[in-house]
Design brief:
By secondary structure, the protein is α+β, with helices and mostly antiparallel strands. 31% of the residues lie in helices and 30% in strands. Strands 2-1-3-4 form a 4-stranded antiparallel beta sheet. A hairpin with a 4-residue loop joins β1 and β2. The longest helix is centred in the last third of the chain and has 16 residues, at 75-90. The protein is globular and about 35 Å long.
């Protein structure tokens, strides 16, 4: 099982982007991500993702660090959307 950890921004619709794998994100990177989310009309969170997104047998855990852009859905709803998008990316047999 992969123990890869990375900093991500999780949008309320389940999409995510990586901010860093080997270093903590800077405040400027976090602020840019927040501006991008707001410009897209989305809320989102700074989070830590652990696991391999592309390995179907690998569990992926998300840990919320903090909200960076207010949104319309809860953290739990965003996580559910994230896992749904991951299942789609991995294909129908997963």
């Amino acid at each position: 099982m992969s123990s890869e950890k990375r900093w991500i921004v999780l949008a309320e619709d389940g999409r995510h982007t990586t901010l860093g794998r080997h270093t903590d994100p800077t405040q400027e990177e976090i602020e840019r991500a927040a501006v991008g989310l707001k410009a897209a009309g989305l809320g989102g969170w700074l989070a830590v993702m652990e696991g391999d997104y592309y390995r179907s047998r690998c569990r992926v855990d998300l840990l919320m660090v903090r909200e960076i852009a207010p949104g319309q859905v809860t953290w739990d709803a965003a996580m559910t959307a994230f896992h749904g998008l991951r299942a789609q990316a991995l294909g129908p047999s997963h």
